[in-house]
């Protein structure tokens, strides 16, 4: 009676061996890793306040993820294919969870956050505004209390966050290269594009959840479970407020660990999709081949690394694709990074409203585009050469349509020190030596801070400090700055947060802008899957995982746009539509040069992954039939009777 039980158990485990189950698990892992990354980026401000660290240290913490990821991604992409890939992915998810847990650990090792020792309660500033300090006492409290030394020791616990972020980066390394190569190896060639499109959707869903989680945690006080929140004298709009950043990291840790569980049940290899019914017939043959292959891998696990790397670097299509990706990624980074500020300035809307509209008009078409792009390649069994042409034509169409953004703009706000002088006269954009004026030189203002206010004279200023405002009344978005020496000669004029309002024409142009965003996002997402499949199929199957890892490494190293870190250029991009739209257009235009050469090279050569799917299926069917016949010929009557008896039992 033991044999039937074993048969049932084996069948139960086999349910986990389906490629679609693996796809679902990998999509959840994509959601979990992008959720953690988005939440981390959203909580940097809270971490900066909690540990009282400089902006440079915050940048180090944020970049530590790339350090952990880049150090291992190439080697993991190669060595991971020699091992149990699902198991490696599961371990990676657990390591990511461990990193997120370590990032939350300082909260439990530190004492209560004492906002009273940072800024006086009377200051009541907005998140990034600083008032004119020329005629006032210093806002920071000079203290010689010995407890201050304890605070300095506690603030060094930001190292836990940095180390946890490094660990999170190392844990993410096997997910993308090993997961995609596993799907490519065991999925039908015509189904693979659809599966990759579903994975891409997971990358989009994760940040959405991460932003919602960050918003939720930022509005909860960091010590809500250990203090009486009714006694707090600050609100989330105060610069001293620190949200419960650690809660989200614990949630991310749990999500990453949960997503790891299914991967421990997947086998090292799967039957090719569509051939699951023939597993029993070919099982013994595959086991023999697998043992022989395992011995070869054991003896030559490192000898292929350098030849594989040489083969990839000598693959002209692959290297051109990397160059194309780097140029394209830099353009996308500029667009995504500065779009909220650019639209806020151009159309006079609040940041919250702009972010909502961006999500509303970009995410649904991206979802649809990824799925349709994969379905089209599955339905028509598109060859890689046709896929390359489809991706090129769609991307070029979207690129040409993007030039209409130049027509959907409003006039720049009159901003003192940028587009106009402090007297209201129009001037060339951003001249460094006139950002300061006689009315604010005594204020010790930061000249590269962008937290605009609108004066009652109709002129905007880069910050309340540069407007010469000495005090504020109210909180949050209702805050009013008073005694602004730059706004009125008497010094009694006032200003409110945000840029000055624009006319109804800008609202109509904003609607046209987002309609164009919806169309271009759909076309762009339709081109993503065919283009990515060219990358996957232009390399040999044994080099696929390493190729994906090397591509990710190059795009992350060379795709980090250095000038994004400089606030001066941020202001330039925000106020100059030609720079914001023109620079990405120039980079994308350059990316079509390697794309053109890729199409030219693909005409002349056969790609390693380029096969006619119908011929492949026919060959596989004939091979299976032949093996079945051989088994039937060599099957003895005694074996037949024994098999029938086992079936009846």
UniProtKB/TrEMBL annotation:
Q: Which family does it belong to?
A: Belongs to the organo anion transporter (TC 2.A.60) family.
Q: Give the keywords, sorted.
A: Cell membrane, Disulfide bond, Glycoprotein, Ion transport, Membrane, Transmembrane, Transmembrane helix, Transport
According to the record, the segments passing through the membrane are 21-40, 60-80, 87-109, 157-182, 194-222, 242-266, 317-339, 354-376, 388-408, 512-534, 579-599
The name this protein carries in UniProt is Solute carrier organic anion transporter family member
| Region (Disordered) location | 630-649
Q: Which residues form a coiled coil?
A: none
- Any one GO BP annotation for this protein: monoatomic ion transport
Presence of keyword NAD: no
List, alphabetically, the Gene3D superfamilies matched. Answer: MFS general substrate transporter like domains
SUPFAM superfamilies given for it? Answer: Kazal-type serine protease inhibitors, MFS general substrate transporter
An example GO CC term for this entry is: basolateral plasma membrane
- Name its species: Peromyscus maniculatus bairdii (Prairie deer mouse)
**InterPro entries membership:** Kazal_dom, Kazal_dom_sf, MFS_dom, MFS_trans_sf, OATP
Question: Where in or outside the cell?
Answer: Cell membrane
Q: Name one Pfam family in it.
A: Kazal_2
Topology in the lipid bilayer: Multi-pass membrane protein
What's an example of a GO molecular-function annotation for this chain? Answer: sodium-independent organic anion transmembrane transporter activity
Superkingdom assignment: Eukaryota
Residue ranges annotated for the Kazal-like domain, each copy included: 433-488
| Annotated ranges, domain Major facilitator superfamily (MFS) profile | 22-603
